[in-house]
Amino acid sequence: MSEQEDLLPRHIAIIMDGNGRWAKQRHQPRFMGHRAGVKAVENIVKHCIDRGISVLSLFAFSSENWRRPTKEVKLLMELFSLALKRQAKRLHENNIKLNIIGDISRFSASLQKQIQDAEQLTINNTGLTVNIAANYGGRWDITNSVRQLAEQVKSGALQPEDITEDSISAGLTTAKIIEPDLFIRTGGEQRISNFLLWQLAYTEFFFADTLWPDFNSDELDSAITSFCQRERRFGKTSEQIQGQEDA
Predict the structure, then answer these.
(1) Which fold has domain 8-139+177-246?
(2) pTM of the complete model beyond 0.85
């Protein structure tokens, strides 16, 4: 690839959409699409390592997904558990750090234990960080942070006027993670769907028609190339940005 390394996104966030439609196109049950989606995750993780990406965040299960048919939710939980069982050791061997972001309290005790064990196993790894958003919602994340600040105000430890954007950010599940540079959604839909609402404020968006199980390294490279061709101004003018580059 020709992009300079310093132009690459450090953090890529992805909504992996289209598993069910992928299965339907093949006259298969939706669950088969989710299984194929797990394989796509493995390939994208590998390619992120090859490209030198620092952080990859994947939206696996939203807080709204509990509304899906009970059987599908049950199968998704089983698939999540199986993926953790099979992949945790492999992630560790490849120096990958795993974080599960979201409210895991609704998961079974055994799945919570698996999550904690996998995170603990990889906690000191220094390579790619993979965040899996599970039972996650952006509004929940912000509300939870604000609630913590409200408790501090209530106790007298914090004054309302001392609440800042930084203090809200510090209470989010992603507090210690750099904000996403590039957001990708597969499957043709063009919305955020309550994913990382606070964190995506200045993120570049890329929407792909490709269904998630078919999203491969070439597709990811197309998104990265698009990102590298954009001018990120963060509220400044193009002239200011060019001046910084010339300095």
Answers:
(1) Undecaprenyl pyrophosphate synthetase (3.40.1180)
(2) yes
